[in-house]
Amino acid sequence: MSYFVHQLADVTTSIIGDNTNIWQYCVIFSGAVIGSNCNICAHVLIESNVIIGNNVTIKSGVQLWDGVSVEDNVFVGPNVTFTNDLVPRSKVYPSAFEQTILKKGCSIGANSTIIAGISIGEYALIGAGSVVTKNIPANTVWYGNPAEQKGYITCDGILLDMLKRDRKGIIHSI
């Protein structure tokens, strides 16, 4: 296998795909699965029961807790916060952590918070600073606190309004 782990990272998993870069001050637990061609930026923590697909970018300051699954081609912006326990208590652990799924091609903007147990649909876009409290359908755009749907997005990244029109007024199908 051919991947890069910065000398200042603490990586104990052995399941890392080709052409993946893991930068300084990352902590990645044994059992975590990381695909090929990923970029795991500085100061990222990835727990044991986390699966990351191929071509994923995880920017600095993100913690992926047990129960988070990331499919291929996903972007997770800096300081995105995930939860995995809906009723957290100190030293009291659930029998199983909530499962959160980031579907293929979705993007999550910086400083967003993703509440445990939801799914973000394929190619969906979450705007920076959003608080996501429910499942997000594919090809939709959400932002705010709590996040609300503000439009649609094509698989090619063209932003559309609620009537599926682009900035020039052309209607698109998704």
UniProtKB/TrEMBL annotation:
Gene Ontology terms, MF aspect: acyltransferase activity
Q: Which UniProt keywords apply?
A: Acyltransferase, Repeat, Transferase
SUPFAM superfamilies linked to this entry:
Trimeric LpxA-like enzymes
Which CDD domains does the UniProt record give? Answer: LbH_WxcM_N_like (cd03358)
InterPro entries attached here? Hexapep, Hexapep_transf_CS, Trans_hexapeptide_repeat, Trimer_LpxA-like_sf
Q: Which family does it belong to?
A: Belongs to the transferase hexapeptide repeat family.
- Name of this chain's protein: N-acetyltransferase
In which organism is this protein found?
A: Butyricimonas virosa
